[in-house]
């Protein structure tokens, strides 16, 4: 199946922004409607997130990786879908029974309190429904159908707000919120299974047992290693909440949970990239196209750092203004932990796409070692700092652990066989962030603590950062134009107009006008600039650099046209498939 990384990324990231808007609506309402119960809800959902790793993570990552691979086997897609569907049913049943037994035998009440018994019975049902929600979404992603899988997240969130937040408003507390989660999961599972059935018959996939030569051991191994990897990964942003809930106070846990929620906004783009890169790079790895992997990894690292630095500056500047407006007044206490978490969140943001590219190759041992080292450090630091410093200790411990993720995963990437740092222009990006931070901070202080600053600072700050990035060489003007061109009209038309003007002015590049950045079927396209540190000293080196630059420009234009052709071919294949099915 032909797939475009760009289209998948845009489908995911656009929904991410919508979900952020919905979180801004639901999170403040829950803090008000649940009151002190919001701390219990935060602890409960952290426990659930860790528990679901064993139930769901291996299934979700496995099905989207192996469905995406175009292996020369009869009924490969059918066998993979059926294999993981049977596994999903089995693991969901075991997981559901495990939580129900924990509530029934009194293990939960003895450690967390009597109110948690009812919570755990509801969680046991949520395990089953969430399992199928994730299975359907990840299977659709594996088929390259992010345009279907991501709107299901939006539907899930809408139903959660309507039912869960609505029941909390009516006084049903945490139980009502959990029922809201289940409502969204059940609905999206039904819709998702119906969409999968249009591509692969679920009845046939479930009933047909794969032949003996089907690589069951490979799939089981990937499933087991994925569970270990995701367990280490999730512990980095869930165990601190759980440990603070045990070692600190409920109110501190509530404040800290909001701090995490806001600081983790930096992960919007990295999470979208992580979701799309695992299955999208599987075929690139299988084709041994290492040059494309390196090029893609460097671009992704640079753009991730650019975006997260911009968001980090904005959050650090505007959080004290937004917190009292969005949340109850006492939640201004969350601002201190936010500032402590932001530097580490930038490091974790950079590590996420690198991790996904490594997963795409399937060599998880090195990734587990890197993530596990950061996870162990996180547990040790939280155990040392929380008893003495409370939520501030948790923020420092977590931020340090987040930051080490980037360092460890650069090492793991090189062990696996790709380099995400060379060509990423990291010094230039950091310098651009430093240059832009001062005027953005001064502007926010000038406007004061008013809603007006929330309206003015973000667009003006983005413009300042963009100019700084171009001036210091972290970003090229041509890249900006390329991104505008890929957007829907009228933005796309505006980008094309700028392209025509830019090509007309830039005569020193030659008469052919071949200064086009490439899309490379990646989330963000660019023309890779060769290193030219000795250009000014040696004219021959400068000439060679210009030739290489033109060759790369031609190559990127070809890649861009290829991506468009792949997109059109995918659309035609889908229309043919629908016609065959009589739709």
UniProtKB/TrEMBL annotation:
Q: Give the location in the cell.
A: Cell membrane
What does the entry list under GO cellular component?
plasma membrane
Q: How does it sit in the membrane?
A: Multi-pass membrane protein
Predominant localisation class? membrane
Any idea which UniProt keywords this protein has? Cell membrane, Membrane, Transmembrane, Transmembrane helix
Q: Tell me where on the tree of life, at the top rank, the source sits.
A: Archaea
Q: Mind telling me which residue stretches traverse the membrane in this protein?
A: 9-29, 41-63, 83-104, 116-132, 152-172, 178-198, 219-237, 265-285, 305-326, 332-352, 364-385, 391-411, 423-444, 450-475
- The biased composition feature labelled Basic and acidic residues covers 506-517
Q: Which InterPro entries match?
A: Poly_Biosynth_Transport, Polysacc_synth
**Segments for region (Disordered):** 506-552
What PANTHER family does the record point to?
Answer: O-ANTIGEN TRANSPORTER-RELATED, PST FAMILY PREDICTED COLANIC ACID TRANSPORTER
Provide the protein name.
Answer: Polysaccharide biosynthesis C-terminal domain-containing protein
Species of provenance: Haloterrigena salifodinae
